[in-house]
Design brief:
It is a single chain. Helix content is 81%, strand content 3%. With 317 residues, the chain is mainly alpha-helical. The protein has a single domain, classed as Rhopdopsin 7-helix transmembrane proteins (Up-down Bundle), CATH 1.20.1070. Helix 2 runs antiparallel to helix 3 (80-112), helix 2 runs antiparallel to helix 10 (267-291) and helix 3 runs parallel beside helix 7. It has helices at 2-39, 44-71, 80-112, 117-125, 130-144, 147-151, 177-216, 221-227, 230-261, 267-291, 293-316; strands at residues 152-154, 164-166, 170-173. One of its GO terms (cellular component) is plasma membrane. The chain crosses the membrane at residues 12-35, 132-155, 192-210, 238-260, 272-289.
Length: 317
């Protein structure tokens, strides 16, 4: 009974994540691609948000779908090659969500920074080099996970070592202590470096927003909205994204530490860790859609066109 209940909650959780995450990330990508084609340019922050939506989508396809399918009783449908590709894709894209969110917060921090010599250099160089920074981040994450192609196999009747991660469709056998420890250290260094950097950048953004709030506090209420610039509102959205990520990262890390100190871990605990590790891919696009002015304008225009078209067809009838 407990087993069936766990699978029901797991199916509901991951199918909800898919239903929310897939269309919302596609909306962001489609709108920004349309703006890029129509206007021949895209703001650096929106370029970063497009990349974030893309890696979110890949995280959902590579982890959300397998988990949801497993929850409804489908088993052992992947061969070795498919296991390697899906495992590599998920791990790379999960790493990229950390890196891209960090880049987004650092970019906003640079935008808000005062016009001092060092900041001016960054203001000039970072926006124009976003594509190259993205390439570097992809390379960093790809370099961490060569073991996915070497040690991931489909579930089958074979002997595994004690350094094996038993996933829903695949097994990731690290073979020995050295590979297991090296992989863990590389992931930990990446995670804590980028999470730490985005936290520091966000704290600076909060400080600037606080100073800005004090500055406009004495302004007449009718002028306060105009005092809140586009950068101010964009900064609030970035801080919210980082807060969500750090909170989910904290939950994920706490569950991971728990699994290390407890000899027998309940499958429900493992499911919860995977769910919280994937949840950002569905929550972050909602925040972006609700806070990005260009996306809201495009959606409003589309909605108004649909209403106008519907009213015209109704009047003709």
């Amino acid at each position: 009974m407990d087993f069936e209940l766990r699978l029901i909650f797991k199916a509901i959780g991951f199918f909800t994540l898919i239903v929310v995450g897939v269309p919302s990330n596609i909306i962001i990508i489609a709108i920004f691609v349309y703006i890029r084609v129509r206007e021949k340019k895209l703001l650096p922050s929106n370029v970063i948000l497009t990349k974030l939506a893309l890696v979110n989508l890949l995280v959902i396809f590579s982890k959300g779908f397998p988990q949801a399918i497993h929850a409804i009783g489908v088993r052992n449908i992947l061969n070795d090659t498919e296991c390697k590709v899906i495992s590599f894709t998920y791990r790379i894209c999960r790493g990229m969500t950390i890196c891209v969110t960090c880049l987004l917060s650092c970019n906003q921090c640079i935008i808000l920074a005062p016009p001092l010599k060092t900041w001016i250099f960054l203001k000039q160089k970072v926006p124009s080099n976003i594509p190259w920074i993205m390439v570097l981040l992809w390379c960093i994450n790809c370099a961490i996970y060569p073991s996915c192609f070497l040690h991931v196999h489909a579930i089958g009747n074979y002997t595994t070592s004690k350094y094996t991660l038993y996933l829903e469709f695949c097994n990731h056998d690290f073979r020995n202590t050295a590979i297991y420890v090296a992989n863990g250290i590389a992931i930990a260094l990446r995670d804590f470096f980028f999470v730490g950097t985005m936290t520091i950048a966000s704290c600076y953004i909060v400080f600037v927003l606080y100073q800005h709030g004090k500055k406009i506090k004495g302004i007449r209420s009718s002028d306060r909205n105009s005092g809140k610039s586009i950068e101010y509102k964009a900064s609030q959205a970035v801080v919210l994204l980082v807060t969500i990520y750090v909170a989910l990262f904290g939950i994920d890390s706490c569950i991971w530490i728990y699994t290390l100190v407890v000899s027998s871990v309940s499958p429900a605990i493992s499911d919860a860790r995977v769910f919280f590790g994937t949840l950002y891919a569905a929550l972050s696009p909602i925040v972006v859609i609700k806070t990005n002015k260009q996306i809201k304008t495009m959606l409003m225009c589309h909605t108004n066109k649909q209403i106008l078209s519907l009213s015209e067809s109704t009047s003709k009838d």
